[in-house]
Protein backbone atom coordinates (compact mmCIF):
# COMPACT_ATOMS: atom_id res chain seq x y z
CA UNK A 1 0.00 0.00 0.00
CA UNK A 2 2.83 2.39 0.89
CA UNK A 3 4.55 1.54 -2.38
CA UNK A 4 1.34 2.38 -4.36
CA UNK A 5 0.98 5.73 -2.59
CA UNK A 6 4.61 6.54 -3.23
CA UNK A 7 4.19 5.85 -6.94
CA UNK A 8 0.93 7.88 -7.10
CA UNK A 9 2.61 10.79 -5.33
CA UNK A 10 5.43 10.67 -7.87
CA UNK A 11 3.03 10.86 -10.82
CA UNK A 12 1.20 13.80 -9.26
CA UNK A 13 4.47 15.64 -8.62
CA UNK A 14 5.61 15.02 -12.24
CA UNK A 15 2.32 16.29 -13.65
CA UNK A 16 2.42 19.42 -11.48
CA UNK A 17 6.04 20.10 -12.47
CA UNK A 18 5.20 19.72 -16.20
CA UNK A 19 2.23 22.07 -15.82
CA UNK A 20 4.39 24.71 -14.12
CA UNK A 21 6.98 24.40 -16.87
CA UNK A 22 4.37 24.89 -19.58
CA UNK A 23 2.93 27.86 -17.71
CA UNK A 24 6.40 29.40 -17.41
CA UNK A 25 6.83 29.08 -21.18
CA UNK A 26 3.51 30.74 -21.95
CA UNK A 27 1.31 27.71 -22.25
CA UNK A 28 1.24 24.85 -24.69
CA UNK A 29 2.68 25.51 -28.12
CA UNK A 30 0.12 26.50 -30.71
CA UNK A 31 -0.88 23.85 -33.21
CA UNK A 32 0.99 24.00 -36.50
CA UNK A 33 -0.68 26.32 -39.03
CA UNK A 34 -3.00 24.74 -41.49
CA UNK A 35 -1.46 24.80 -45.00
CA UNK A 36 -3.95 26.35 -47.37
CA UNK A 37 -3.44 25.76 -51.07
CA UNK A 38 -4.64 28.70 -53.16
CA UNK A 39 -5.39 27.90 -56.77
CA UNK A 40 -4.06 30.52 -59.18
CA UNK A 41 -6.70 32.80 -60.62
CA UNK A 42 -7.11 31.87 -64.27
CA UNK A 43 -6.53 34.63 -66.80
CA UNK A 44 -9.91 35.53 -68.28
CA UNK A 45 -10.28 34.83 -71.96
CA UNK A 46 -11.34 37.99 -73.77
CA UNK A 47 -14.65 37.80 -75.49
CA UNK A 48 -14.44 37.87 -79.27
CA UNK A 49 -15.20 41.25 -80.79
CA UNK A 50 -18.09 41.21 -83.21
CA UNK A 51 -16.37 42.83 -86.18
CA UNK A 52 -17.94 40.90 -89.04
CA UNK A 53 -20.77 42.73 -90.69
CA UNK A 54 -24.02 41.52 -92.18
CA UNK A 55 -23.36 40.52 -95.81
CA UNK A 56 -26.85 41.76 -96.63
CA UNK A 57 -25.58 45.29 -95.95
CA UNK A 58 -23.06 45.03 -98.79
CA UNK A 59 -23.41 46.66 -102.20
CA UNK A 60 -22.23 45.60 -105.63
CA UNK A 61 -18.85 46.90 -106.75
CA UNK A 62 -19.53 47.42 -110.44
CA UNK A 63 -16.80 46.96 -113.03
CA UNK A 64 -16.42 48.63 -116.40
CA UNK A 65 -13.61 48.58 -118.95
CA UNK A 66 -12.51 51.01 -121.65
CA UNK A 67 -10.57 49.02 -124.25
CA UNK A 68 -9.69 52.18 -126.20
CA UNK A 69 -7.53 53.49 -123.37
CA UNK A 70 -7.06 50.27 -121.39
CA UNK A 71 -8.70 51.35 -118.12
CA UNK A 72 -10.69 49.34 -115.61
CA UNK A 73 -13.16 51.39 -113.59
CA UNK A 74 -14.91 50.31 -110.36
CA UNK A 75 -17.78 52.02 -108.57
CA UNK A 76 -20.69 51.23 -106.25
CA UNK A 77 -22.82 53.84 -108.04
CA UNK A 78 -24.97 52.50 -110.84
CA UNK A 79 -25.59 56.05 -112.03
CA UNK A 80 -21.86 56.75 -112.21
CA UNK A 81 -21.27 53.58 -114.22
CA UNK A 82 -24.04 54.53 -116.67
CA UNK A 83 -22.48 57.98 -116.99
CA UNK A 84 -19.11 56.40 -117.80
CA UNK A 85 -20.68 54.06 -120.35
CA UNK A 86 -22.73 56.76 -122.07
CA UNK A 87 -20.30 59.66 -121.86
CA UNK A 88 -16.93 58.22 -120.84
CA UNK A 89 -15.49 57.55 -124.26
CA UNK A 90 -15.88 53.81 -124.60
CA UNK A 91 -16.50 52.15 -121.22
CA UNK A 92 -18.50 48.92 -121.21
CA UNK A 93 -19.97 47.12 -118.23
CA UNK A 94 -18.22 43.94 -117.12
CA UNK A 95 -20.75 43.11 -114.44
CA UNK A 96 -20.11 43.00 -110.70
CA UNK A 97 -16.58 42.57 -109.40
CA UNK A 98 -17.50 41.86 -105.76
CA UNK A 99 -19.63 43.06 -102.87
CA UNK A 100 -18.40 45.81 -100.54
CA UNK A 101 -19.76 48.33 -98.05
CA UNK A 102 -20.65 51.93 -98.85
CA UNK A 103 -20.36 53.20 -95.27
CA UNK A 104 -17.61 52.46 -92.78
CA UNK A 105 -18.58 49.56 -90.54
CA UNK A 106 -16.56 47.76 -87.84
CA UNK A 107 -13.28 46.27 -89.12
CA UNK A 108 -13.55 47.95 -92.52
CA UNK A 109 -11.23 50.57 -93.97
CA UNK A 110 -11.55 53.04 -96.84
CA UNK A 111 -10.72 51.77 -100.32
CA UNK A 112 -9.36 55.00 -101.82
CA UNK A 113 -9.94 55.81 -105.48
CA UNK A 114 -7.53 57.81 -107.59
CA UNK A 115 -7.35 58.74 -111.26
CA UNK A 116 -4.42 59.58 -113.50
CA UNK A 117 -5.62 61.74 -116.42
CA UNK A 118 -2.34 61.30 -118.27
CA UNK A 119 -2.30 57.52 -118.36
CA UNK A 120 -6.12 57.27 -117.97
CA UNK A 121 -5.90 54.85 -115.04
CA UNK A 122 -8.19 54.35 -112.07
CA UNK A 123 -6.19 53.19 -109.06
CA UNK A 124 -7.57 51.80 -105.78
CA UNK A 125 -5.72 51.26 -102.51
CA UNK A 126 -6.30 51.08 -98.76
CA UNK A 127 -2.79 52.34 -98.05
CA UNK A 128 -2.87 55.99 -96.99
CA UNK A 129 0.85 56.47 -97.73
CA UNK A 130 0.55 54.83 -101.14
CA UNK A 131 -2.38 57.08 -101.97
CA UNK A 132 -0.45 60.21 -100.94
CA UNK A 133 2.62 59.15 -102.91
CA UNK A 134 0.55 58.52 -106.03
CA UNK A 135 -0.92 62.03 -105.69
CA UNK A 136 2.37 63.77 -104.90
CA UNK A 137 4.66 61.96 -107.33
CA UNK A 138 2.79 59.87 -109.90
CA UNK A 139 0.24 62.24 -111.40
CA UNK A 140 -2.88 60.87 -109.71
CA UNK A 141 -5.71 62.92 -108.27
CA UNK A 142 -7.95 61.77 -105.44
CA UNK A 143 -11.50 60.76 -106.26
CA UNK A 144 -12.45 60.06 -102.68
CA UNK A 145 -13.41 56.66 -101.32
CA UNK A 146 -14.72 53.96 -103.61
CA UNK A 147 -15.94 51.66 -100.83
CA UNK A 148 -15.15 50.21 -97.43
CA UNK A 149 -13.50 46.81 -97.28
CA UNK A 150 -11.76 44.28 -95.06
CA UNK A 151 -7.97 44.05 -94.91
CA UNK A 152 -7.89 40.37 -93.89
CA UNK A 153 -9.87 37.18 -94.29
CA UNK A 154 -10.85 37.14 -90.60
CA UNK A 155 -14.54 37.34 -91.41
CA UNK A 156 -16.16 34.16 -92.75
CA UNK A 157 -17.08 34.22 -96.42
CA UNK A 158 -14.60 36.91 -97.49
CA UNK A 159 -12.34 36.35 -100.49
CA UNK A 160 -9.27 38.18 -101.82
CA UNK A 161 -9.55 40.90 -104.44
CA UNK A 162 -6.35 40.56 -106.46
CA UNK A 163 -4.52 43.58 -107.83
CA UNK A 164 -2.61 43.59 -111.11
CA UNK A 165 -0.83 46.22 -113.18
CA UNK A 166 0.05 46.56 -116.85
CA UNK A 167 3.01 48.81 -117.54
CA UNK A 168 2.12 48.75 -121.24
CA UNK A 169 -1.26 50.42 -120.73
CA UNK A 170 -0.77 51.85 -117.24
CA UNK A 171 -3.89 50.00 -116.09
CA UNK A 172 -4.62 48.71 -112.61
CA UNK A 173 -6.89 45.68 -112.74
CA UNK A 174 -8.77 44.09 -109.82
CA UNK A 175 -10.45 40.69 -109.80
CA UNK A 176 -11.50 37.95 -107.37
CA UNK A 177 -11.02 35.26 -110.01
CA UNK A 178 -7.76 33.32 -109.88
CA UNK A 179 -8.39 32.12 -113.43
CA UNK A 180 -8.88 35.65 -114.73
CA UNK A 181 -5.85 36.83 -112.78
CA UNK A 182 -3.63 34.07 -114.17
CA UNK A 183 -4.86 34.65 -117.73
CA UNK A 184 -4.18 38.37 -117.48
CA UNK A 185 -0.64 37.61 -116.32
CA UNK A 186 0.00 34.94 -118.95
CA UNK A 187 -1.61 36.59 -121.98
CA UNK A 188 -2.26 40.31 -121.39
CA UNK A 189 0.98 41.66 -119.97
CA UNK A 190 -0.17 42.18 -116.37
CA UNK A 191 1.94 41.51 -113.31
CA UNK A 192 0.55 40.54 -109.95
CA UNK A 193 0.66 43.12 -107.18
CA UNK A 194 -0.74 40.73 -104.58
CA UNK A 195 -4.01 41.03 -102.74
CA UNK A 196 -5.55 44.48 -102.57
CA UNK A 197 -8.31 43.80 -100.03
CA UNK A 198 -10.84 41.22 -98.92
CA UNK A 199 -14.40 41.43 -100.16
CA UNK A 200 -17.62 39.44 -100.30
CA UNK A 201 -18.19 37.27 -103.36
CA UNK A 202 -20.83 37.77 -105.99
CA UNK A 203 -23.72 35.41 -105.17
CA UNK A 204 -24.01 32.51 -107.59
UniProtKB/TrEMBL annotation:
Any one Pfam family match given in the protein's UniProt record, by short name: DUF5648
Keywords of the record: Signal
Transmembrane segments: none
UniProt keyword Transcription regulation present: no
Signal peptide: 1-19
InterPro entries given in the database record: DUF5648
Region of interest (Disordered), residue spans: 23-47
Domain DUF5648: 61-199
Designated name of the protein: DUF5648 domain-containing protein
Organism lineage: Eukaryota, Fungi, Dikarya, Basidiomycota, Agaricomycotina
Amino acid sequence: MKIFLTILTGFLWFGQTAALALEARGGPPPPPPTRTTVSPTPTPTPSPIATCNDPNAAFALLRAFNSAVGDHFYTTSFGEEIQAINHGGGYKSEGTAAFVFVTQLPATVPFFRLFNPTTVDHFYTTDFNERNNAIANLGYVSQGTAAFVYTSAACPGTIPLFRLFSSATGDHFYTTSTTERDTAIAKSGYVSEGTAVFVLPVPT
